[in-house]
Design brief:
The protein is of the alpha+beta class and 432 residues long. 66% of the residues lie in helices and 10% in strands. It contains 15 helices and 7 strands. The strands form 2 sheets. It has a 5-stranded mixed sheet, covered by helices on one side. A two-stranded antiparallel sheet has the order 4-5. Helix 1 packs across helix 5. The radius of gyration is 34 Å and the shape is elongated. About 1% of the residues have low confidence.
Length: 432
């Protein structure tokens, strides 16, 4: 066998290793110390060993040993190094073997008309096709493999393995495995047909996996939204109870005044002053501020204004909303409460109290409810798919619920972090 053929074999092996790493989401840095060394050293030994074999054995003999000297060692390397089950490693291995075929096909097609490029030019073309295939695997195959790993059992993977296994058996049956040789047109067409059929099968499998993922994500989002709306209902009920308490307090005001008058009549002005102070604190606690004409918004803003005061946050409000809105009070409560909970939570972490700020603006403009919430923050905000990410387990549902409520009503929301100011903008169309 020529040195060129040996280099092609090693390139193909390297392609298979990288392809499997992508499909199984294997990162060398994330492997444990000894396993990392084993992974790197063992793969180099497979590459070096096959380079030697390609130089001392005829091509046909090396091809007969291909599975034993390449596939089997690489399977054990990935199985031992990673925590992936054996059947999933086999599926990724067979898929990587399937994905190298286009590179071999291109080399077969151009090797005769472009023989003047031999060997360096042909090799660089082969490298170019391999890199393109790896990009396709990373861009398209990887996410679907993640779905299959997450939703399919090992028994399901055994059945999935039948697809690439059948493809490989078909190639062996045709007597063509691995690298370009002088092929008859009939054999070449048969191999292409097998490849196309297998590729279509992969696409169908991936489409099913995508549907399962989207269905589960939708059900999870629906459950999360239901829980958040229930929480909004409870919070709204609590705020309304506070309002009712304020009404009772106002109704009983004559009793409070009578008691204060009694203290003053007895000449006990200190007790009267203390009672007035306590009564004033109680009234401030349970009486909502009148920011706008919407009672629900007043209750929510008043509640968070009290929280902001507790944490030394400057809470600014500019609200001009009518008595009724097309969005339900429950959803409005969930929307504003999640936004303000995140805003006050971030602002209170700012070390310098002078920069602890939360600003809220609520208006109706051209039949759209416009909500703007700005707050100071410290540190770095990580954004993913337009949403700020929380590193705390169980957090992050608030921003998702805001987006889901906005989209449910045909509106939209945006999140932006710039110059230590986090800005949330919400636009909700209002019915006439």
């Amino acid at each position: 066998m020529t040195a060129f053929s040996g280099i092609l074999i090693c390139t193909t092996i390297l392609f298979g290793i990288i392809a499997q790493m992508l499909l199984l989401d294997t990162n060398i840095k994330n492997l444990e110390g000894r396993k990392r060394i084993f992974f790197v050293v063992s793969n180099f030994l497979v590459l070096g060993g096959n380079m030697v074999l390609s130089l001392v054995l005829p091509t046909s003999q090396h091809m007969k040993l291909y599975v034993l000297v390449i596939h089997v060692p690489i399977f054990f390397i990935f199985w031992i190094s990673t925590k992936t089950s054996a059947v999933k490693v086999i599926f990724a291995l067979l898929t990587a073997v399937f994905m190298i075929y286009p590179a071999n096909m291109v080399l077969t097609i151009i090797s005769h008309p472009l023989r003047w490029l031999y060997p360096v030019g042909l090799y660089f073309i082969y490298i170019g096709v391999c890199v393109t295939l790896l990009w396709i695997i990373k861009r398209f195959f990887k996410i679907y493999f993640y779905d299959l790993n997450r939703y399919c059992s090992n028994f399901s993977f055994i059945k999935l393995c039948l697809l690439p296994l059948t493809y490989n058996i078909g190639n062996y049956w045709l007597g063509m495995y691995g690298f370009p040789n002088a092929n008859s047109a009939e054999i070449f067409l048969q191999r292409n047909l097998i490849f196309v059929v297998t590729l279509i099968s992969y696409i169908l499998i991936f489409d099913i996996a995508k549907s399962v993922r989207e269905k589960e994500a939708l059900e999870g989002a629906k459950l999360a939204l239901t829980m958040l709306l229930e929480s909004g209902n409870k919070q709204l009920a609590a705020l309304q109870a506070t309002q009712a308490q304020a009404a009772v307090y106002r109704h009983d005001m004559r009793h409070h005044l009578s008691l204060i008058g009694g203290y003053l009549a007895d000449g006990n002005s200190k007790k009267a002053e203390e009672y007035v102070r306590l009564a004033q604190e109680d009234i401030e606690t349970i009486t909502p501020n009148l920011y706008c004409g919407n009672n629900t918004v007043n209750l929510i803003l008043s509640s968070f204004a009290a929280k902001a005061k507790k944490y030394g946050i400057v809470f600014s409000v500019d609200a001009q909303l009518p008595h009724s809105l097309s969005i339900s009070d429950t959803e409005l409560c969930a929307l504003l409460s999640n936004a303000l909970e995140n805003a006050t939570g971030a602002a209170k972490e700012v070390m310098d109290e002078k920069f602890r700020n939360v600003r809220v603006s609520c208006h109706i403009h051209k039949r759209n409810l416009l909500i703007l919430v700005e707050n100071s923050f410290t540190g770095k905000v990580t954004m993913e798919n337009g949403l700020p990410q929380s590193h705390c387990e169980g957090h992050g549902l608030g921003v998702k619920s805001i987006r889901m409520i906005a989209e449910k009503h045909g509106g939209f929301c945006s999140f932006e972090a710039r110059d230590e100011i986090f800005t949330l903008r919400i636009v909700l169309p209002q019915e006439s």
